[in-house]
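Page 47, continued from p. 46.
Same chain as before, 161 aa.
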Amino acid sequence: MLKATDTRPDPVANVRSALTAAGAQDTVRIFADKVPTAAAAATVLGCGVAAITNSLIFELDGAPLLILASGAARVDTSLVANQLGSGRIRRAKPDFVLEHTGQEVGGVAPVGHPRKLRTILDTSLQEHPVLWAGAGDHNSMFSISYEELRAITNAEELQVR
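Result:
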């Protein structure tokens, strides 16, 4: 919900709109307590940390790169850079993340951004029939299948660890 002084669009509403525009179900769940980490989300949802899809923003040559990685994974940026044939990939700063996603670190969703982001999808996530991803803020998540997530984000599938 926007505050009277907040001019940014509601990130959860943007995620819901992006899901329905892509033909996906709106499965967004909003929780009373924050779920800003994969471990916190897994506890609230009653699933394994590996089924949580972290939406991580990196910077590659000044542009955002969204990596959708398992909550049980630590992204190997050198491995990803080598597979992409690119230069150094580094973790983006919070203001860069907010500028390019409209969402704060810890609540970034795979969709609902102001502009389309180049997206990488961790192939290890396909081991889970149901994935959970952030829905735009620290209190919301949505469920989706691997194939549907790949399709709605137009992600490149890569091993990220």
